[in-house]
Write a structure and sequence with these properties.
By secondary structure, this protein is mostly helical. It folds into two domains: 94 residues, Orthogonal Bundle (Endonuclease Iii, domain 2); 103 residues, Endonuclease III, domain 1 (Orthogonal Bundle), CATH 1.10.340.30. Helices cover 62% and strands 0% of the residues. It is built from twelve helices and no strands. Helix 2 runs antiparallel to helix 8 and helix 9 packs across helix 11. The longest helix is centred in the first third of the chain and has 24 residues. The radius of gyration is 19 Å and the shape is elongated. The two termini are 38 Å apart. The model has no long low-confidence stretch (mean pLDDT 93).
């Protein structure tokens, strides 16, 4: 690596580490806002959370889990009934179909168990890269970096990444930070993006990172 490039890299890593340090101070403790108990409930909740809020999911899942307690019972669920139970979550027709198909696949191939294998998880209906990473990270404690719309937005505004593609953003964040930080960083970026660095009308006056933020530099009012 040329000397100038090495200096730039060191400066960028220092910047990235300082962003994480300030996020840890601003958000000292983190946990998912999805309410679940065990891998079955986590998997269902994460599948339901696509393109909706955790709050909406948490309203629907108590009755859902009381009615269907595992993948075996969900595999045998009546589609119309399941769709009705989750109708307030959004995209209910598709999610109901996916949950039944996912459960049947797990019952047939994995004895009704979710497994800690990324390549297998992404073959399940309704499970994409982000969902699989959340299941592995949250459910199994395996270091993964899940990238959703909040992570994409915040990472771009902080100039940690220069791509809009989730998989490339995931790879970049994993390069910048060690595996032991991935789970906490994901949750902090989600929380920060959800409540402070929002897509519209972000709370720039409360932000601990204005010196690093391109949005603040270019668009925030009353700087």
């Amino acid at each position: 690596m040329a000397k100038a490039s090495k200096i730039c890299f060191v400066k960028f890593m220092s910047r990235a580490n300082e962003i994480l340090r300030r996020l840890k101070i601003f958000i000292p403790t983190v946990s998912t806002e999805l309410v679940y108990n065990g891998l079955y409930q986590l998997t269902v909740a994460v599948v339901l959370s696509a393109q909706t809020t955790d709050k909406a999911v948490n309203k629907a899942t108590p009755f859902l889990f009381s009615r269907y307690s595992d993948f075996y019972s969900l595999a045998a669920a009546d589609y119309q009934e399941l769709k009705e139970i989750i109708k307030t979550v959004g995209l209910a027709p598709t999610k109901a179909k996916n949950l039944i198909k996912l459960s049947r696949k797990l019952v047939t191939e994995q004895q009704g168990m979710i497994v800690p294998e990324f390549a297998y998880l992404i073959t399940l209906p309704g499970v994409g890269r982000k969902t699989a990473n959340v299941i592995l990270s949250e459910g199994f404690g395996i270091p993964r970096m899940a990238v959703d719309t909040h992570v994409l937005r915040v990472a771009k505004r902080l100039a940690l990444v220069d791509s809009p593609k989730p998989q490339l953003v995931e790879a970049r964040l994993c390069e910048l930070y060690p595996p032991e930080e991935w789970h906490g960083l994901h949750l902090r970026l989600v929380f920060f993006g959800r409540y402070y660095c929002k897509a519209k009308k972000p709370s720039c006056d409360l932000c601990p990172l204005p010196a690093f933020c391109h949005y603040y530099t270019n668009y925030a009012p009353e700087k």
